[in-house]
Amino acid sequence: MQSSLDYQRLTEACTREGCILCRLAWEDARRYLEAWKYEMFTDITVREELRHSQGFCSEHTWQLVQMGASIQLAQAYRDILSDAKEQLEKEKSTRRQRWFEPKRSNTLCPACRQKTDAQARLISVLREALLDPPFYIQFSASPGLCLNHFRLACEQKPSDSQEAWLPLLRKAQIACLQRLDEQLGELIRKHDYRFKNEARGDEMVSWKKAAGLVAGEDERVY
Do residues 47 and 41 touch, judged by C-beta distance below 8 A? Predict the structure, then answer.
């Protein structure tokens, strides 16, 4: 277990800011986007997959823009726009008023699917890792999980041996939230003009940590 790559990644993520599952899922999605930019964008199967999903989601499309994937997006999105134009022309000739087919709500963009698959895999590894005392100590001292990933970690199927890892996950998450609650209390207290001259510490960024745990982390922040 300790030699697995995901175990090592989870352990290392415990020493960094933010929800460890948010961070590692971003990394997996970004690696997919980099592979798409440099190799996969010409693959016929991948291009068909993108046509079916009607491209990447807004988040990952603009991430590719920032990565400089201009020609890659030009080729891929030309396919999608050509499909839309062809569909519009057919509907015009048949006098249908639906215009083109909307994107199905349950169709994930390829990068989102990569991120979702990574989350499921990492949650399984996390559950097992919690039974390892050294990892449990590190996780308890980490920022913990955002509320969404905590819920997913508790509910994801299968949940074998739930009685073993679930109490540990809850106990560690409570410790993380208690630590953050104390920092938020200090931040709010020091916002009072009467205490403005007191030394500032980690509590000054606790608002950002709280935002990440409640709303989910934003990789642009860290």
Answer: yes
Are 143 and 213 in contact by the 8 Å Cβ rule? The answer is yes
Cβ atoms 32, 62 nearer than 8 A: no
- Distance between CA atoms of 92 and 185, rounded to whole angstroms? 62
The residue to which tokens 């960094």 are assigned: 16
Q: Residue 222 — very low, low, confident or very high, per pLDDT cuts 50/70/90? A: low
Query: Residues in the chain, how many?
Result: 222
Please check whether residue 207 is in contact with residue 184, taking contact to mean a CB–CB distance below 8 angstroms.
yes
H or E element, residue 86: helix 70-94
- pLDDT tens across 143-186, in order? 999 999 999 999 998 766 667 899 999 999 999 999 999 999 98
Query: Among candidates 71, 3, 57, which has minimal Cα distance to 29?
Result: 57
pTM as predicted: 0.83
Largest Cα–Cα separation, the chain:
74
Residue-wise pLDDT tens digits, 7-50 = 999 999 999 999 999 999 999 999 999 999 999 999 999 999 99
Tokens 């106990």 -> residue: 171
Quote the Cα angle for 135-151-33, to 5°.
80
Quote the radius of gyration of the chain (alpha carbons, Å). 22
Distances (CA, A) of 54 to 64, 83, 127, 220: 15, 9, 35, 25
Calculate helix-pair angle for 147-155, 162-190, nearest 10 degrees. 170
Crossing angle for the helix pair 20-38 and 147-155, to the nearest 10 degrees: 90
